[in-house]
Structures are given as C-alpha cells and as structure tokens.
C-alpha cells in the first residue's frame, strides 16, 4: 500500500521554494516513481529509495514550488522496468494534487559547512606538549599510563605545532575537550568558564591557535560543560564560604545549609561530589551561561559548541541558548552529546546535530561483534535516517570512538575474540575495521576521528582510552594512517559523499556484502563493502545507481576500472575480504595519492 501524509517523515521544507517529499511504497516489486510538482507548469523529478523497513521502501525527491511557501504535487508510479506494467497516479484524497504550505520558521537550516567537514577530537592534555613551561606539577613522562588524575603536559601550543599533521591527515574541524580553568586533566570540573586553563596557555595562546587553524582551513568547536561546575568554581566557593547568605545559593540544588561536600548535600552529576549541578532554571545562571556561549564565539573566534550531557538540562535553556548563539554567529554549529534517539532535539529548536552514538553502536554490533545481521544494520540505519530531519542527518557527528569509550581497535579485538575462528589480535582487528571505516567516511553525517585512532592507539574504557598521542613514526601504524588519509581525501573531494542522497542498493547478509549509492543531482557514487572473511564477486544493476551502458567507472580505493555492459553497473570478480570499493564515473575520478 502506498502512503503519504503531511508529516515531517514525508514533508520537510528546505527553503522558501523547495520541499523534501517522501512516499512510502511496498518493497516488492521495485518501483519507478516520479514526483510531479509545480503547477500550472509541472516539473517531474525521479524519486529514489532512501530507506527500507521490513515491508516498505521510502522514496524521496525535492519538489520545487511555483511560488513561495506553497507546493502542489502528485506522484506518477509504475513497476520497475523489468516487471513492466501500466503507470498510475497517486493524488490527494479529494482526487486533486496534494498541497503543502509552510513558513520561514518551519525551515531547519543547520550550518552549510558541517556536511563537508571531517572532525578530529583532541583531548588537550594528551595530544602534544608544546610548552613545557606551563606543565602542571608532577607531569608524567610522555607515553606513560594514564590515570584519572595524572597529567602529561599537552597544551594549546602543542596543538598549534601539530597543525601540519592535521592538514596532512585532512581533517577540517576540531572538537577540543574542555580548555577552561580547572584542577583536573579532563577539565569537566570547571573553575572559570571565561579563562583558559593556565596549564594549556592563555587567551593569546588560544587566539593564536584559532587564527592559524582558520588560516589552514580548520574550524574549531569547544566543549560546553553547562550542566555542572567544579567545586572550585567561584560561585560554589562563595556558597561554601557564606552558606545561605551567599548570593549564589540558588545557582545550585542545595538540600540544606551549611553546604557539605562529604557526603554532598546538593545535587551533583552522577553523585560525584566534585561536580555540583547548576540550576539552569535560574535566570541568573541562564544569563551567565549564555554569556559564556557567546563570548567564546567572538573571543576565539570559534565555530560552535559540543554540548555536554544536554539532556540533563531543561530544554527551554537550550532554545534560548541557540537563539543567542545564532545571533552572534548564524553559522555556528551546535551539537549535543546524546547517546540515544535524538529526534526530539533535532527540529531546529535546539541543536544542529548530535554525537551519533547510535551509528557507533550499530557499526560495532555488526562489524566487530556480529550481534546483528547486515540486513538488520541496514534497517536500523534507515530507521534513524527517517526519524531525523534530512538536514540534521548530514550534520550528525559519526564517531567510532571518543574520550568516553574504549578505543575502537580494542573494541574490535574484544568483539572478534568472542567469535569462533577468530584470534582477536591487533592485526585482525584492524583488518575488520577497514570496511567499517569506509562506511563511516561515506555515510551521511560528518565523520569524527578520535585522536590517535588513525595511528593505531589501543586502550580500554576511561582512563585507558586517553593515552598520550603516539608521535614516533616507528610506533605508529603507518598503513592504517595512510588508509585514513586516503578515505578522508576521497570524502572531501566528492560532494556526493558529503550531502548526497543515501540510496541502498544491495544487502547480502549471507556473504556480508553491502552496497549503496550517494546521489547528488546528476552525480552518482557507489560504495561496495565486503565485511566477510572470504573474497567475493559482486554484480549490481546499472539503472538503479544512475549508470548507463558503456560508461567506465573507477574504484578510488583499488585503482581498477569497470565498464558498464548492458544493464550491469559493475561486476567485481575479486573483492577481497574485509575491504571495499568506492566507484565513480571515470571522467569524474580524481585520484588521491
């Protein structure tokens, strides 16, 4: 049964004259569907399948309105050409074209630069020591074992000195873990939001870093920890000293006076006494935090915020925070640390994107642990693409690891060790990681690399996942680094991989073959993954992927070329195990070194 209605899953305004339109159709047979929009001069656009459920496929296309904020449209449908059959039309219930109206306020416009970005997360104390003069007392030798309390001397000057490395890797945006004054190595227990931590440098150091990063084509977003402060924060210190007489007594959730820290008689994050929770419902607290949010956009100037545990703060605060931040910099990126379904946060009122931990979990459950089948992976990825606005899908941070998770190679080692016939050693983990990395770099959303993953750093959960960066080439996995560099270059060079429609083409759970296209206007790219342990031959039909007979397509990873014969887009006779191909018409191919 075909289905369409006025709901965000089926209609999303993209501009004053453009709307994303979807139609749900039975999965079998495949359909040729065209969106007919405009009126009185009707224009047709092919609708392509973008997500699938167990019984249905969702087709989508952009409709162009004849006038502002009003679209007339209907659907023209016929079975796929191999099945034949007459075409028919789907109209509104009153047997007229559908009509959709919207306003400027309905348009969700996240920053246009994010879909093309490749992010790199840096934990400053562990990246590089560029200025030993500002090292904290007791700083450990670089390369030692991390604990929850020790320091290694990494700083902002160290990041600045490694800009050439970041350029070589190809990243275009940094997320820095907190840089503000704090007594800890992680800086999530803030003492002063308006001061750079002296162990990292000062405001001049930071501004020099940002200026050189921007000159190198690299943006910077900061970590906003606004749910809680540290006990050394000036307002909490005043509360400790003056108790109920403190003007900041309503900045926190204090149960009784005097304030006690052992055990705490105030609300704190996950019962850590050193992390008292701020009361964001207090207008004074909101005003202060918004001041912090806008100050650093101008003082850096920085390019946005990654927002810590935002689901633990009342949503109205984030609505106001967004409004004020966007006044200062409409292009600022706001992304929230949400570990679960983030649909309620991604409709233009709060965030532009979130940390896509759901993507991470699904990738690990299939590629590393084999807890789910390839078919389930495809269905669940599609489910979340449908749940989020399309514009938000391209602005999610697609990560495989972070400072809060075990290192991705270690996760693969542990997952493989629990599977029969696998060793679970480092070499096998990296081998199985490669198709997952291809997916990460070719999937909708901005890929994010946690510092050191690209050179093979391993480690368990916090604090082991926060080991110092490995800079000695003899200790780096240079083959893995080269693979990251190549994938990042391919993603950056092809616009279709950044904001092109995701079109699933083949899900072969028996042989662990996953193929999909990224489509943008007339440009098409095809990605084929072999996540199995055996070499496979793969054939795909030409017309669903936008190819025509006689075309020559090039594999940007393997370097081979395939000519489209008859109706076959490609026939890869020797796709190695745990590998992939990224195919593009040869005349569009730009080879990466």
Short overview:
The protein is an alpha/beta fold and 593 residues long. Helices cover 24% and strands 25% of the residues.
- Secondary-structure content class: alpha/beta
* Strand content range: 15-25%
User: How many DSSP E strands?
Assistant: 26
Number of helices: 13
Q: Helical amount among residues, as a percent range?
A: 10-25%
Radius of gyration: 26 Å
State mean pLDDT (0 to 100 scale). Answer: 95
Largest sheet: 8 strands, antiparallel
Low-confidence region ranges? none
Task: Give the distance, in angstroms, between the N- and C-terminal Cα atoms.
Answer: 49 Å
Shape: globular
Outline the structure in words.
The protein has 593 residues and is α/β, with parallel strands linked by helices. Helices cover 24% and strands 25% of the residues. Strands 1, 2, 3, 4, 5, 6, 7 and 8 form an 8-stranded antiparallel beta sheet that branches. The chain has an 8-stranded parallel beta sheet with strand order 16-15-14-13-10-9-18-17. Strands 19-20-21-26-23-24 form a 6-stranded antiparallel beta sheet. Strand 23 and strand 24 form a beta hairpin. It is globular and about 80 Å long. It starts with 10 loop residues before the first strand and ends in an 8-residue tail after the last strand.
């Amino acid at each position: 049964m075909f289905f369409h209605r006025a709901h965000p899953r089926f209609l999303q305004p993209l501009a004053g004259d453009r709307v994303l339109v979807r139609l749900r159709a039975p999965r079998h047979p495949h359909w040729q569907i065209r969106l007919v929009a405009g009126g009185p001069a009707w224009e047709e656009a092919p609708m392509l399948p973008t997500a699938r459920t167990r019984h249905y496929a969702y087709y989508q296309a952009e409709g162009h309105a004849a006038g502002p904020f009003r679209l007339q449209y209907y659907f023209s449908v016929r079975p796929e050409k191999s099945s034949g059959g007459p075409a028919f039309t789907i109209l509104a219930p009153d047997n007229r074209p559908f009509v959709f109206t919207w306003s400027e306020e309905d348009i969700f416009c996240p920053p246009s630069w994010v879909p093309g970005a490749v992010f790199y997360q840096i934990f400053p104390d562990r990246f590089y020591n560029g200025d030993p003069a500002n090292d904290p007392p007791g700083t450990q030798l670089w390369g030692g074992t991390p604990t929850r309390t020790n320091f290694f001397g990494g700083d902002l000057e160290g990041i600045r000195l490694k800009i050439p490395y970041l350029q070589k890797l190809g990243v275009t945006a940094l997320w820095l873990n907190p840089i503000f004054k704090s007594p800890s190595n992680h800086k999530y227990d803030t003492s002063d939001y308006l001061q750079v931590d002296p162990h990292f440098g000062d405001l001049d150091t930071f501004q020099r870093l940002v200026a050189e990063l921007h000159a190198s084509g690299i943006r910077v977003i900061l970590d906003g920890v606004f749910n809680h402060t540290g006990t050394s924060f000036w307002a909490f210190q005043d509360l400790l000293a003056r108790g109920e007489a403190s003007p900041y007594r309503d900045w926190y959730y204090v149960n009784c006076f005097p304030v006690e820290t052992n055990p705490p008689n105030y609300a704190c994050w996950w019962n850590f006494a050193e992390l008292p929770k701020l009361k964001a419902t207090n207008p004074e607290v909101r005003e202060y935090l918004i001041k912090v949010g806008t100050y650093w956009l101008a003082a850096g100037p920085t390019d946005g915020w990654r927002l810590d545990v935002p689901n633990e703060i009342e949503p109205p605060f984030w609505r106001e925070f967004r409004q004020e931040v966007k006044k200062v910099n409409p292009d600022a990126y706001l992304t929230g640390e949400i570990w679960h379904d983030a649909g309620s946060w991604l409709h233009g009122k709060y965030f532009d994107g979130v940390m896509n931990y759901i993507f991470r979990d699904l990738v690990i459950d299939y590629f590393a642990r084999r807890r789910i089948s390839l078919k389930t992976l495809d269905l669940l990825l599609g489910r979340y693409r449908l749940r989020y606005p399309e514009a938000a899908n391209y602005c999610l941070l697609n990560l495989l690891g972070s400072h809060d998770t075990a290192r991705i190679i270690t996760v693969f080692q542990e997952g493989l060790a629990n599977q029969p016939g696998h060793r679970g050693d480092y070499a096998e983990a990296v081998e199985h990681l490669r198709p997952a990395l291809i997916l990460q770099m070719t999937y909708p959303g901005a890929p994010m690399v946690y510092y050191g993953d690209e050179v093979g750093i391993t480690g368990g959960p916090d604090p082991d996942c926060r080991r110092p960066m490995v800079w000695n080439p003899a200790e780096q996995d240079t083959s893995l680094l080269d693979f990251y560099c190549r994938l990042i270059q391919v993603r950056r060079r092809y616009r279709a991989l950044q904001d092109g429609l995701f079109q699933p083409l083949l899900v072969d759970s028996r042989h662990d073959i996953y193929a999909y296209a990224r489509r943008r206007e007339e440009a098409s790219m095809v990605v084929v993954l072999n996540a199995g342990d055996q070499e496979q031959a793969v054939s795909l039909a030409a017309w669903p992927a936008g190819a025509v007979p006689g075309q020559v397509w090039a594999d940007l990873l393997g370097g081979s070329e395939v000519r489209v014969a008859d109706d076959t887009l490609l026939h890869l006779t020797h796709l190695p195990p745990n590998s992939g191909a990224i195919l593009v018409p040869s005349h569009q191919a730009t080879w990466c070194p």
